[in-house]
Specification:
The protein is of the alpha/beta class and about 280 residues long. The protein contains nine helices and 13 strands. α3 packs parallel to α5. The longest helix has 18 residues.
């Protein structure tokens, strides 16, 4: 479990990125922080592994303050996946994945065995192990980044807009892979995005943020869609438009559900379920 306790962050130029933020992030669930650029979501994420130090307040993991831990050791114990993968260009795929393991003292052979296994876990062909990042597609690079984040088998995985730089088709594939991985690996995941659809797809708990990391609403995707806290949330999630503004249409072959643009999203069967 991760807990923010009255956390504030003011940068040296006077920018107040986070103001008095408190929230509990449950273990073995995916919490998604979502909001527009500059709302403080990435700052919150980076305070968990002390890449950013809070100005005030505390962050606890399983009841222990991260501020009392060695920052380097803390970062090596927490998986971190960023946008554009952040791979080292002069390292092979295999060595990129094995990096953290080597840093914590794992023998080279064992580290490489673990890295090869993780490539398979994230859906990559083992034949890519000896290639360099520049020889991979954007989607493949992101999968390598996820494998590297999982290398030391961390309990916590931080993901900072990891799929934001790839095209929509690849992004959808990576999102499906993320759902599978979380189901199989059962990590505590903190995921940052500005895409509300991605937040609702991946999150068990979704936190909608405004400027200064002010919590506007927190809940499951269903709770937020069914009962938006205010007009800001309703507008942000698009409750009255697009794929979430659904209604029933009668057709010659039965009833279907269509979105705000009239596109059919599914058919109603006898028990009322959408297929």
């Amino acid at each position: 479990m991760i807990e923010f306790r009255s956390v504030t962050k003011r940068f040296g130029d006077g920018t107040l990125a986070v103001e008095d933020f408190s929230l509990t992030l449950p273990a073995h669930r995916t919490t998604v922080l979502v909001g527009s650029s500059g709302c403080g979501k990435t700052t919150l994420l980076r305070m968990i592994n002390r890449m950013v130090e809070p100005t005030g307040g505390d962050v606890e993991i399983d009841g222990e303050s991260v501020l009392g831990k060695d920052p380097v050791a803390l970062r090596r114990s927490i998986g971190y996946v960023m946008q554009n993968s952040g791979l080292m260009p002069h390292f092979t795929v295999l060595d990129n994945v094995a990096t953290v393991l080597r840093l914590i003292g794992t023998p080279k052979r064992a580290a490489h065995e673990r890295a090869r296994s993780l490539l398979e876990t994230v859906g990559l062909d083992g034949a890519l192990a000896d290639r360099y990042p520049s020889q991979l597609s954007g989607g493949q690079q992101q999968r390598v980044g996820v494998a590297r984040g999982l290398a030391a088998d961390p309990n916590i995985l931080l993901m900072d807009e990891p799929f934001g730089a790839v095209d929509p088709i690849v992004r959808a594939d990576l999102q499906r892979e993320m759902i599978r991985l979380q189901r199989d690996l059962d990590k505590t995941v903190v995921f940052v995005t500005h895409d509300i659809d991605e937040a609702f797809l991946l999150g068990d708990q979704v936190v909608i943020l405004d400027t200064g990391a002010r919590v506007v609403q927190v809940g499951s995707p269903s709770e937020i869609i069914e009962n938006p806290a205010d007009d800001f949330v309703a507008a942000f999630i698009g409750v009255d438009r697009g794929r979430r503004a659904l209604h029933i249409k009668e057709t010659a072959r039965g009833r279907v559900v269509v979105d705000a643009e009239g596109r059919t999203q599914g058919a109603l069967v006898e028990d009322g379920a959408i297929t």
